[in-house]
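In this section we walk through a basic example: taking a raw amino acid sequence and producing a predicted 3D structure, encoded as discrete structure tokens. The instruction is simple. Fold the sequence below.
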Amino acid sequence: MSPTAVVLGVGPGLGMSIAHRFGREGYEVALISRSTRRHEGYLASLADAGVKARAFAVDVRDRDQLSSTLDSIGPVDAVYYGPGATDLNDRPGEITTTTSDDARAAMDWLYPAIDVTQHVLPGVIERGGGLLFAGGLSAVQPMPMLGALALTGAALRNYALTLNAALVDKGVYAGTLTIGGLVERGDIHQVVKSKPEEFGTVAGHTLDPDAIAETAWQMFVRRDRAEEVFSVF
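The resulting token sequence is shown next.
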């Protein structure tokens, strides 16, 4: 049987680049996002590249739905966790206005990472697989304007690094991709690019998702580092 990679929070940018990169190595890919709206195009793109894939509409914050979907996927060898809020019309308040309620709401994007890990980990350990988590630069560099989201990013990064330390002796890898910049083709990149009057030019502020995915693959197979920072700042 081919190994299986689950891509959670798949979008047209980094998520699809990760799916294609693992697919080129013979992995079957299971795509998970909040709606089916773009699944047909994603699956067609992967099929054209010779990658076998399935797609599932799941809000990862729904623990029961997430659990049943992972069960239906079957044995998992690799996980990429990259979901997050993409609505630029609902931006967080900056850190001096952040309330504990804001922090609790932001952490809703951390808890599914833990749920996914706990669900798949026994099988991943058995197969010597691994997990990759994507977060923002605010995890390592103060970015007050991101408010509560900065707290979530730092927590996710710490979880990934600590998980890697705990699993290294079990032959399992965990790593984090810390991203500072607009990921090309991604949803946020598209919105920002379409509104130069509001956000300014994107020139010099973008990252190539294919290059990030290549680095992620090398981290996954070499297991020589638990973090890579990609930043245009």
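Looking at the output, two observations stand out. The radius of gyration is 17 Å. The longest helix spans residues 148-167. In the next section we compare this with other chains.
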